């Protein structure tokens, strides 16, 4: 057995250090990571992936830390992926998260990892899908993915999660008007956190109105609204119950098959995007015509659109000949 295969087997047995190593390799684009994931991937599909999103400072990490506690009490093993913000102003959040989640650091049934998004254009980073798959194969029952509520990621987490939790908070100005367009619609479960602050009642009222006026089929899932004070652990059990109720709904309505298809497709697209651009750039650098094109773009003598088209055509012709 190769070293990588041995590591993959250890991860399958739930060995946390082996899993951590594989995730690090994947993050570093080390070949071993892909090799290990090829072994692990067939064992995925059991974990319940919950995405948690909302505006910066809404209390997502505080909530996640409480969720870990509640899920552990139900004897479930919990993986947590906190997507690091790439924007510098929220850099402090990373340290904050670590401190906040420290209480679970010595628990073997908990795995916490920060992921870099690396400012990738469009789509959650491939690394996040990969890390989720590794945790899934390792036998973690629930994987919580916290995404910072800035940029595109907060909407993309929907593609990764079975259940998306959207956290709202009072005090952001004009109630739900202050929420980013589109974010309320992606919620399977709503949380109003900081229920202890003034404005929480008004926000709850507005959200209720919003939910009641949105059109849904009779059969469709109606996103429940949970009021929480994460700091005090209030509303956390209700939130866990709401997430599992949504999971149950997916099963009974047979939507779970569609969700599985959607997740697989997005994972595939993320990998393909990554591999294709890597290959194309290598091709461009090594091919004399490609190098000339690149030089022309650099010098401002050619527009990037026509250059990209020329390059893709050349690549296709070459690929056709190789077949
Ligand atoms: N009053 C009040 N404050 C809270 C509550 N929950 C969290 N906070 C505070 O809100 C601040 C932000 O909490 P975090 O858990 O870091 O929020 P976050 O959404 O993870 O923040 P980012 O990851 O930076 O977007 C902290 O100072 C928390 O102590 C709550 O229920 N009530
Ligand atoms: Mg956070």
The ordered string of helix (H) and strand (E) elements is HHHEHEHEHEHEEHEHHHH
What does the oligomeric state look like here? single chain
* Order of the strands making up the biggest sheet: 3-2-4-1-5-6-7
**Count of separate DSSP helical elements:** 12
Low-confidence stretches: 86-96
Counting helices, strands and paired strands, the structural category is: alpha/beta
Q: Would you state the CATH class of the largest domain?
A: Alpha Beta
Q: What percentage of the residues does DSSP assign to strands (E)?
A: 5-15%
Characterization of this structure:
- This protein has helices at residues 3-12, 16-27, 31-40, 60-73, 92-101, 126-137, 153-160, 200-213, 236-252, 255-286, 288-298, 304-322; strands at 48-53, 78-84, 110-116, 142-147, 163-168, 189-192, 225-227.
- It starts with a helix and ends with a helix.
- 52% of the residues lie in helices and 12% in strands.
- The chain is globular, with a radius of gyration of 22 Å.
- A seven-stranded parallel beta sheet has the order 3-2-4-1-5-6-7, sandwiched between helices.
- The protein is built from twelve helices and seven strands.
- The protein folds into three domains: 1-43, no CATH class; 45-253, 3-Layer(aba) Sandwich (Rossmann fold); 268-322, no CATH class.
- It has 323 residues and is α/β, with parallel strands linked by helices.
- The structure holds guanosine-5'-triphosphate (GTP) and magnesium ion.
- Magnesium ion binds next to helix 4 and helix 5.
- The site of magnesium ion has 5 residues, from helix 4 and helix 5.
């Amino acid at each position: 057995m190769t070293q990588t295969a041995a590591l993959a087997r250890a991860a399958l047995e739930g060995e946390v250090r082996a899993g951590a190593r594989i995730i690090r390799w994947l993050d570093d684009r080390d070949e071993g990571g892909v090799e290990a994931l090829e072994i692990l991937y067939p064992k995925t599909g059991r974990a319940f992936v919950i995405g948690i999103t909302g505006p910066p400072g809404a209390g997502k990490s505080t909530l996640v830390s409480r969720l870990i506690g509640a899920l552990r009490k139900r004897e479930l093993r919990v993986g947590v992926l906190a997507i690091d913000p790439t924007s510098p102003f929220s850099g402090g959040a990373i340290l904050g998260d670590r401190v906040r989640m420290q209480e679970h650091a010595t628990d073997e049934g908990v795995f916490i990892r920060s992921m870099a998004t690396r400012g990738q254009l469009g789509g959650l980073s491939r690394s996040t899908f990969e890390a989720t798959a590794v945790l899934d194969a390792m036998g973690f029952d629930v994987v919580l993915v916290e995404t910072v509520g800035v940029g595109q990621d907060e909407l993309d987490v929907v593609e990764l999660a079975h259940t998306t939790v959207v956290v709202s908070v009072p005090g952001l100005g004009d109630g739900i008007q202050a929420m980013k367009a589109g974010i309320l619609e992606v919620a399977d479960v709503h949380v109003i956190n900081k229920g202890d602050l003034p404005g929480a009642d008004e926000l709850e009222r507005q959200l209720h109105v919003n939910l009641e006026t949105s059109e849904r089929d009779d059969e469709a899932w109606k996103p429940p609204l949970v009021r929480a004070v994460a700091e005090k652990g209030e509303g956390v059990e209700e939130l866990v119950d709401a997430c599992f109720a949504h999971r149950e709904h997916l099963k009974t309505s047979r939507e779970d098959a569609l969700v599985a298809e959607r997740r697989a497709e997005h994972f595939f697209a993320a990998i393909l995007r990554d591999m294709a651009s890597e290959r194309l750039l290598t091709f461009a650098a090594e091919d004399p015509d490609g190098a000339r094109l690149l030089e022309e773009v650099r010098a401002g003598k050619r527009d990037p659109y026509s250059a990209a088209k020329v390059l893709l055509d050349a690549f296709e012709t070459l690929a056709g000949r190789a077949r």
